[in-house]
Structures are given as C-alpha cells and as structure tokens.
Predict the structure.
Amino acid sequence: MSQILDSYRGLQLGNRWDRAPKWFRTVALLLVVAFAFYLPFLNILPFAYIRTDLNPTGSDWASVLFLIVVYMIAAVGLNVVIGFAGLLDLGYVGFYALGAYSVALFGSPSSPVVQALQSRFDLSEEWAVPFVMCIPIAIAMSLTAGVILGAPTLRLRGDYLAIVTLGFGEIIRITARNLDNVTGGAAGITQVPVPPGPEIDGRSFFNTIDAERWYWLALVILILIVWLASRLEHSRVGRAWLAIREDEDAAAVMGVAGFKFKLWAFAIGASVGGLAGLLFGSKQQYVEPNAFMLNLSFLFVAMVVIGGSGNIVGVLVGAFLLTYLPERFRELQEWRPFAFGLALVLVMVLRPQGLVPSRRRAAEIEDRRHEAEEAAADA
Amino acid sequence: MPEHEIVGAEELKDTSDHDKIAIETSGAVGEVLLEVDHVTLRFGGVVALNDVNFDIRRGEILGLIGPNGAGKTTCFNAMTGVYTPTEGTIRFKDQEIAGTKPHRINHLGIARTFQNIRLFPEMSALENVMVGCDARHKTSVLGVLFRAYRVRPSEGELPKSGIRRSFAKVFGISRHTLEERAGRRRSMELLRFVGIADRAHEVARNLPYGYQRRLEIARALATEPELICLDEPAAGFNPAEKEDLMGLIRRIRDLGHTVLVIEHDMKLVLGVTDRIVVLEFGQKIAEGTPEEVARNPKVIAAYLGEPDDAA
Amino acid sequence: MDFDALINGLDRHTLDGITRGSIYALVALGYTMVYGVMKLINFAHSEVFMVGTWTVLGTYTVLGATAGMGVGMVIAATLLALLAAMLASAGTALAVERIAYRPLRKKGAPPLIFLITGIGCSLVLVETFGQVLRAFFGPPFGRVTVNIPSVIETKVVFTIPGIDLPVTNTRLLIIIGAIVMMIALDTFVNKSRLGRGVRAVAQDPDTASLMGVNQERVIMLVFVLGGAMAGVAALLFTIQYDITKFDIGFIIGIKAFTAAVLGGIGNLRGALVGGLLLGVVEVYASQIWDSSWTDVTAFIVLVLVLMFRPTGLLGESLGKARA
Ligand SMILES: Nc1ncnc2c1ncn2[C@@H]1O[C@H](COP(=O)(O)OP(=O)(O)OP(=O)(O)O)[C@@H](O)[C@H]1O
Ligand SMILES: [Mg+2]
C-alpha cells in the first residue's frame, strides 16, 4: 500500500502542473470541464464502465453525477472551514439541512410556513415564495446559523468546537423532526420548488426524469464556488487563515484579526453548505429529517481530509470517491458504513495529509514527523 | 501561482530605495510616543513586572536591558496585548492600550519580533512579510470574493497587453489587485532592506537562522509600525552580523520608526541606543543615556557575574 | 411546558436522574483521563462502552443466565459479566489506541487527524456489531435493539422515609457501584506510583519524560483504566435498562462527554459531579418538555457550559489535582 503511495508521489503531478506553460493549463482545464459536462452521456468505451446504470444493481447515472457534484460543493465549502482556517466542523450537515429546509419551508405550497403566510395575507393556495427568492433566503439562513453558532464557540479550543458543532447538527435534525407544525415533523415537506426554466416536451425544464439538467446546473454552481474559493485562497484572506493555522498568537501580533477571519471562514462554509442543501432538496422535491443524519457530517469531513484538506483538487477527488464508490457498489450497500470507517482509519493512519494533499499540509506533517522522531530519540 | 514568479535581477539588487518603505509619522520627534505607567504584572505568585515606569519618545532608539528573567519580554508582551497588566496602564499616543487585543494594538502602530523566532514556517519569506503588509490593507473578505471595489488605475498600473488593458481602462482595477501588487512590491523592498531578498521564495522554515531573525524584522516593519520592538534581535549572531544589525537598527529609525530593543550584548546596546532602561527582578533600576547607565553602580552590580553573551 | 409533571414526581425524577448520571459519570472518566493526558477527545470511547454491553449479553448467554435464578447464581453471573465487560472494554480501548492513535503520534499528525481516526474507529466498531457480526452469525447482532436478560430481579429494598420514595435494589447497586469505582480510581491516581505518573504527564509531558516517566506506558494505562470504567458502566447500564444496540454508544458517549466538560475536563471528581448533574437536568427537562427533546438537552447544556464556563464547574485538573 505505502509503496503504491510512494510511486504515486514520485510522479510529482502537482509540481509538473505548476511548471506547465499557461496555455497548456488553460486548455487542459477547459478539456476537463468539457468532459465533465459530457459525462451524463458517457459512451466512450474505455470510460463507459464507470457508469453506475450499466451495473445490474446500479442507479441512475445522471442522478449519481448530480449527487457527486452537490457533495463536491459541500466539500469545497467545508474545506474553507477545515482546510483553510483549520477549524473542525462536525455539524456541517446542519447547514446543509438548513439550506434544504429553507427552500422547502418557503417555496413549497404545502409547507406549514407558507400556509401560515397564505392565510395571514389572504393569498391563493398555490402561492409560495418563488424559487429564485428562496436562494438568498437559504443562504441567509445558513449564514446566520453559522454566525450564531460560530460567534460564541470559535474562541474555544479546536476539539471543543468539533463537539459543539456536532451537537448543532443533531439539534437541527431533532428540531426538524419534532416541530411538526413548522417543519412537517418526521413526514417532511413535499412539493419543494424547482428552478424556473422553459417547458420542454410538456415537462418543466427541471424535473425528476431529466437528471442531467440538474447535474449541469450543479456543475455550473460548483465551478463558480471553486473559482471563488481559490480567489480566497490566494489572497490576504487565505494568507490570514494560513497564518492563524500556523501560529495564531504571532498572527495576532502581526495584526491578523484571528477571530474575525475564523468567523468568516465559518460563515462562508455555512452558506456554501446551505447552497448545496438547497440543490439537494430542490432536486428531491422532498425534504425529511432522516436525510440529514449525523453520518453525513462525517462523510463531508471525510471527503475533505481523505482527499487532502486545504487542496481544492484533493477535496474534489475525495468527494468524488466517497460518493461514487458507494453508488457503484450498491450491491454492498449494507457494508458501506463499515467500509467507510475502515477507509477513514486506514487512509488517515497511512497518509495523514490525504490522498492529494496541499503541498503545505504535506510539508507541515512531514515537519512534525521529524520533530516527533527527534523527541522520541531524545527520550 | 503568483508564488512562482521569478524575481528579476533588478529586484535582487541589494540597495533599497528608502523612500518606498519609509513610513509617515504623525507627530514630532522627541514627544512621548508610549508611556508605561506604573505597570505591575503577576503570574500567580511570580511578580514579573513590579511598578515599572518609563517613556519611549518618538524617533529614538531605546534599549531595554537586564539579566535573564528580569521581565523584559514580559514588558513587550504587556505592550503588545499578549498579557494584560495586573495594575497600571500603558498609553500609546495618549491612548490607553493595556488590555486591548493584540491585532488592534498592531493596527494602532506597534509591531514586534519574538525572542524565540515565531515565523509562519510553511510560508515563503515573501508571504511572511505580505501577512504583515495585509495589516494595512483595506480589502474585506467580500472585496476579495467579488472585487466590486474598483479603482481607476494610473498609467503605470495598466496592463501592457490589449484586451486586459481596455478592460482595466473601462472597469478599473479592483482595490484587491492593487493592494496585492503593492504589498508584493513593498514586501520585496523590505526583504531587500533587511538583506535577505535572495531567498524570498523559500519557505521560512528552510531559511538559515540569521535570515529568519531578519525576516522577523521585515515582517514587523511591513505592518508600518510607529514603534517597533525587537526582542533580542542579535541573539546567536557573530560579531560581524551584530555589526550589520546595528546598522540595520539605525536605518530602521531613519525610515521614521521608533525602535525599542532588548539586547544582552552590552557593546551593541551601548553602541546603538539613545537611551537605556534597565530592569532587574521586574523592577526598573536605572534609566538614562548609555554613558550614564554604563557608569551606574546598580547596573554594574546587576550585571556582575552575569556573563556577557558577546563572549 | 409541563411543570406539574416535574413537581409531582420530583423525588422520583431526581432518583432517576442520579441513576442515569452515575452511568454518565463512569463513561465520562474515560474521556476525562484521555483528555487530561493527551489533550485528545477519544471519539471511539462511546463504542468502548457499547462493546461492554454486548460482552455482558455474551457472558449471560454463555452462562445461560436468566431472570429468576438463585441468589448465588445471580451474584456469580453478575460478577463474571462485570469482569468480562471490564476486560473487553479495556481491550477495545487499548486496541483503538494502538491502531488509530499511536501511529499518528509517531508521525506527529495534527490533532484534527486524531479526531478523524477516532471517528473511523467508532464507525468500524459500531458496524462490527451492526453488520459484520450479523453477516457471519446472524441475530442477535444487527441493527435492532436487543434485550438482555434482567438477571437481577428488581425489588424495592427500602423506602426513604418522609418523602415515601421507594428505592430499588438495582438503582442502589448502580449508584453505589459507580461511587465505589470512582473512589477507587481517584485513590489509584492520587496515591499509587503509576497514578503519579499519570498526573505528571497530564501536568507537563516534557518534564515528566525528563523525570523518567514513560509516556507511552502512561497513555496505555489511561486507555485501560478508562476502558475498564466504561465496562463497569456497561454492566450497570444493562442492569437498569436491560437492552443494548449497535449504536447505543453514540448518545451515551455525547452525554458522558458533556458530563466531563461540565465538571471540568481532565478532572476525575468533576466527571462525577458533571455526570450526576447532567443526569438530573436531563430527567427534569424530559418532564418539563417532551421526551423527544431529551437528547437535545445534553447538547444545549454543553454549549452553555462552554460559553460561560469553559473550564467546567470544578476546573480542569487531572494534573493540577493537589499536585
Ligand atoms: N506565562 C508566564 N507564566 C508564568 N511566569 C512567567 C510567564 N512569562 C514569564 N514568566 C516569568 O516572568 C519572569 C520574567 O520573564 P521574562 O521572559 O520577561 O524575562 P526576560 O527579561 O525576557 O528574560 P530573558 O533575558 O531570559 O529573555 C520570569 O521569572 C519568568 O519565569
Ligand atoms: Mg526575554
């Protein structure tokens, strides 16, 4: 196993990429994006076997692609929190759920909230907040939750933060389950709205059958989010986060407002999580509390750390593997959590920096290993 | 990405243009800049500072000396917001700063280096300094994300090539981009100023010890402090390096900074400072010009048997 | 909100809360000791407890123990189950340390990674009982709640005069058992030579290793001790609730962790105070509101404590404890 990892390291893909001329990188990137858009129709023989629907027990390929991209969005958002700012958030599913529930609560004509609004303002029974308006609501809700949760807890030690956020994720789910007259309780909410679009073949543009359209929509959003996240990474904000991670006290003395930047990381992560949840809820057209179990939080965290926390490419790889593999091997569904746990332990023990690490993270860990070895030698 | 820009030969010239990194000061030379007013600081039973009292005047180089454990570093920590004094106050430009958050104090205009070097080890030297520059930058997180704050660029700031140039002419350039460029330029300038520009793109942890010490100074200068506090900047230096450092400290003052320096090497302290404050067991035992302090019997007694680090 | 339900049965609910709290306190010890020495939240500790409950079930099954046996048999079966649970839990804790934490310590991985491998171990253990063992052996393993024979027949042993509160033998056993174990552990850590090593490492690992304390041994010791205490908790839990389930650890673990933080993490006596307090608060809350909110109570208590008194009620002090 470790030999495989070593030979892979020998390829030095990251360095080669950086040394490649700019035109090459642009063209390569465009090709990758084009291929990503083409994926739902993948029929090139050597690639086609990765399609989940060609598998006897497999599921709808375009829907799987959509889920992968939604989880990628969530993972890129969580990477801002974990990878950039170095904060462990174990309650990310809470924000994801808030996003999904926002669009359901305000956009679905059958949600108790909308019904209350209807009767309060004498609106028709079909009335609901339009989908486009639900987007800012969802982002605002998850962002507010992020700030409310972050403000008192970000001053705590990192591992305390992990537990408090974990609690937050559970509180959101339990609240959604228990508040029947607001969230529809365990039954959930149906008729969640979909994005507007021209009608084709008598069906609305975004429907339950043509999943590839959902996938393309999500892909566009993912590209946008990745672009914004890398803007952050290569700016004063990214430097501030890195400085905080490396030496918070020294950073403060150099004028870095640690708490402010951490809170921003938390808020940004929360709103991206909300956005991912919104996409998910809208495609399902149905939300219910059980879709937001704690394990999903662990899955998100695992995508980030297994992929390579701090490195957007790594995180995308992690999200892809952890969403795609379980879908590809659906016949082993019952074994999924076990395999997931095992993978977490194995990958982290053998390769704490993740599969596709950020060079800095790898260096940090390498450094500490030397320190640990020296300390052990001294003792 | 931008890290991989190759430094041009011109950038490597070790003569810096002082005008580019000199700071603007807001008061007259000689007026009181910082006032340590009857400060006491206790750690449980340990009294690290006991009713300490002194001023720093604008434009001077003040030495803070004393035997090991005298409370010098603790004094820095109190001035930069790392610790809050148990009693007494500290005023900077007539503003109370004891108990203020460290990053706020930095924004007010105090920067420091650390006795036990505390760089950001995985960042390049240049990035370390850029973190310091960021302290003066105004772009917010949203500004970085959406770049909506546009500035009309001057001719020199316009890109050379066609489309980008027209774009910048019509839509301006985002403040973030300009600040990033300015920060990069200024950081490079500062690295040259302290004499380590040749290894600007190396990660801090791989730099030689002497470079790390200088990098700390450059990083502190980048925050454009009116007062810069150096905690044993010459520790571990050989005599030639110490000589260099004395020059550097004087040049820092010439840029408009006021300098407070902790140092054990008497020769260096006596050679470079305008005034000296002496601490022993947390108490101030003397204050005055280098000549006065060197003659002071209390100081001589305090340093008796105290081996000179220069040896 | 329903305060009447609470007021009417205040004495009963308090006793109920203390019973629960005793179990939380015992599990909390594991979190507290590991945290004190390694500054690490051992995420898999909840599963150490879970393994203990299954071991109790296994022991009873092997012995053929059921309800309504003779007194001698009951005592023998219970003691054997206790021993087995302590061994199994301690062994699990040690295995987690070996597999998930030690290699990372050697590599100097950042604290975050320890939490992740802890979560991984936790999942593996949960799924071992929920899936792996079921695949090989079938029931009782699997994702359903399993009954454990109530070997000890519940009887009212006495009634507290004045308030007329009947106290059953099982409750008495749990409360006394928990307190005895806590005292034993506290004495061990404070009086024995090994215990001094634990405190020394908790206080200052570097100095301790200079003084010749073997840090690796101390770490193993706290995992074993914490595991054994979780084993005791597992037995007491099964006596009171007669069930187990593959994922029973999670919620108890969270509560025990809350208890540890509430009392002051790293502080053994804090674990007791925090556990009892949390147990009582939780039972009261479930009376005032609806029991579907019970699990939220612990989280809310946790957030409040961390916001207003992050060092806990008694302060954090495995090392500082009268050192
Ligand atoms: N965080 C702390 N907690 C407890 N005591 C401290 C702390 N920081 C400093 N001290 C104590 O305060 C006293 C002064 O320490 P300080 O570091 O200021 O001395 P110094 O003059 O900088 O010495 P040196 O020349 O060795 O750097 C010492 O006795 C030290 O042990
Ligand atoms: Mg010092």
